[in-house]
Design a protein that fits this description.
heterodimer; A: alpha/beta; 13% strand; B: mainly alpha; two-stranded antiparallel sheet; 3 helices; flat
Chain lengths: 471, 93
């Protein structure tokens, strides 16, 4: 995999144009379908204009998940309904990346509207896992994680509504962060479930992930949930966990957890213990209800958010118009894929008269209990450690036919979004050649402690240095 | 229990035309997910407040000043059908 420091060294030795051109060649020569739109001309032009740009990411190539608006670059959310849509403005994170000198080399594949755990629901075809092309890369930010894991780009942006950064980071053996809700502006992120989602950085190691996070985090008045907190997160890159108190929630090692995953995660806890941390088991009794609550809330918000896609102002429009309702219904039927339709239908049901209290309001109350579980568990611990995913990556086609089976894979990632706390996934082992992800969760706005824990683990192990033979 | 008629009705409410032959399949899938959601009934939520926003922020204000915005040409630039600088929608009745 490629690091930011090696990329910056290569730029100094040759030029940003040269480095960006090599990156574009790697992407264009790849057959993993991680990047669905290569922005070659824009990238080369931007690299030419850099000169002696002082930004921390000057000339560094980055891939952007295709639900983040990029001015002048097609942004489809992996959906037919937005094919051909070219945003007239940049998302806040894109403005920040450009100011830092980063070069956007392509838009990354994703589950349609970020609804999925495998990147198989994209209208533009599935992305293949760089460690085994018969396996899924995870989702929904599968393209972002796969392109980093394949050594095509050093950095990528994803978004995480219920695990969509951490799941593919885990399955592809890279590092991904779901920040505290509100730390990164969602302005320009095409919404799926606004109360849950955050944009998140993906890289091949903790230091690079933190460099990227540092660039994109910050207040933006255009997102009313954005929190005014400016920090230098690179100060947390400290190789020291002496005195750190770790909580291990046993509910995160439930039925169906792969024994290799369980062993690797415990090995990681013991590694941190040997470096001066202490650990104890903690109880988070509402974890088993988090998945149902998450899906009720996410689908309800989705049914409302996706009402805007009607073919009038952007996106797919069918040749022939009928009356208003028929025209809308036919455009949306033709433009959305099966999973998106299921979630809109279920969300509509959960919000409809007679069912709203039973499903939506009940789920919001369970959300409160899940959040309180985190507050209690983190009351006398600094971080919580668990598997990101219960198993390594599964085979393409294995779970896509049964929606509920696929939802169950998200059991360890969705509670974090319900509670709004930050969480990192980083590699901690392998099972039959497939990476295993370690999940480190923290208190609201305490990204520093989970970054320090992840950095210390990485500095004292070598999982992050392994690369896939396929890639 | 969701019936094919319910699926059709949800499709109507959400402006999604569902083909006749797909109604049964959707009903089956939606029912299995709703069955799973049913486990929420086990949780005692007596006296528990709902969480709409994890950070409990409210009334976020900004200065009411005019800032730059999209031009009309840019705003309609992505519209598949336009007329005289406007979005063109289908007839309403």
């Amino acid at each position: 995999m490629i690091t930011v420091s090696r990329t910056i060294k290569a730029i100094k030795e040759s030029s940003a144009v040269e480095v960006v051109a090599q990156c574009l060649e790697r992407i264009e020569g790849s057959n993993n379908n991680a990047i669905i739109k290569v922005t070659r001309d824009e990238a080369i032009n931007a690299a030419r204009k850099l000169n002696s740009h002082p930004g921390p990411l000057a000339g560094v190539p980055i891939a952007i998940k295709d639900n983040i608006s990029t001015k002048g670059m097609e942004t489809t959310c992996g959906s037919r309904i937005l094919s051909g849509y070219v945003p007239p403005y940049d998302a806040h994170v894109i403005e920040r990346l450009k100011a830092a000198g980063a070069i956007i080399v392509g838009k990354a594949n994703m589950d349609e509207f970020a609804m999925g755990t495998s990147t198989e629901t994209s209208y533009y075809g599935p992305t293949l896992n760089p460690w085994n092309p018969e396996c899924v890369p995870g989702g929904s930010s599968g393209g972002s994680a796969a392109t980093v894991a394949a050594g095509e780009v050093p950095l990528a942006l994803g978004s995480d509504t219920g695990g969509s950064v951490r799941c593919p980071a885990s399955y592809c053996g890279v590092v991904g962060l779901k920040p505290t809700y509100g730390v990164i502006s969602r302005y320009g992120l095409i919404s799926y479930a606004n109360s849950l989602e955050q944009i998140g950085p993906i890289a091949s190691n903790v230091e690079d992930m933190t460099l990227l996070f540092n660039v994109i985090a910050g207040h933006d008045p255009r997102d009313s949930t954005s929190v005014p907190r400016e920090k230098d997160y690179t100060n947390a890159l400290v190789n020291d966990v002496k005195g750190l108190k770790i909580g291990v929630p046993k509910e995160y090692f439930g039925e169906g957890t792969d024994p290799h995953v369980e062993r690797s995660v415990w090995d990681a806890v013991h590694t941190l213990e040997s470096l001066g941390a202490s650990w104890k088991e903690v109880e988070m009794p509402h974890t088993k209800y988090a998945l149902a609550a998450y899906y009720v809330i996410a689908m309800s918000e989705a049914s409302s958010n996706l009402a805007r896609f009607d073919g009038m102002r952007y996106g797919l429009r069918l040749e022939k118009d009928h009356d208003w309702h028929t025209t809308y219904s036919e455009i949306r039927a033709a433009g959305f894929g099966e999973e998106v339709k299921r979630r809109i239908l279920l969300g509509t049901y959960a919000l409809s008269a007679g069912y709203m209290d039973k499903y939506y309001l009940k789920a919001l109350k369970v959300r409160t209990l899940v959040k309180q579980d985190f507050e209690r568990a983190l009351n006398d611990t600094d971080v919580l450690i668990a598997p990101t995913m219960p198993t390594p990556a599964f085979k393409l086609g294995e779970k896509i036919r049964d929606p509920l089976t696929l939802y169950l894979a998200d059991v360890n990632t969705v509670p974090i979004n319900l509670a709004g706390v930050p969480s990192i996934s980083l590699p901690c082992g392998f099972s039959d050649g497939l990476p295993i992800g370690l999940q480190i969760m923290g208190r609201h706005f305490d990204e520093e402690t989970i970054i320090r824990t992840a950095y210390t683990f990485e500095q004292n192990t070598d999982f992050h240095t392994k690369t896939s033979e396929v890639a | 229990m969701i019936t094919t008629k319910d699926v059709e009705h949800m499709g109507w409410l959400s402006r999604l035309k569902i083909e006749e032959e797909k109604l049964e399949g959707y009903a089956g899938q939606l029912n299995s997910v709703l069955d799973y959601f049913g486990q929420l009934d086990e949780v005692d939520t007596e006296g528990v407040e709902p969480t709409y926003h994890v950070l409990e922020m409210n009334n976020v204000f900004r200065e009411d000043v005019i800032t730059e915005c999209l031009t009309q040409a840019l705003a309609i630039g992505n519209a598949p059908k336009t007329q005289d600088g406007f979005f063109k929608a289908p007839r309403i009745i």
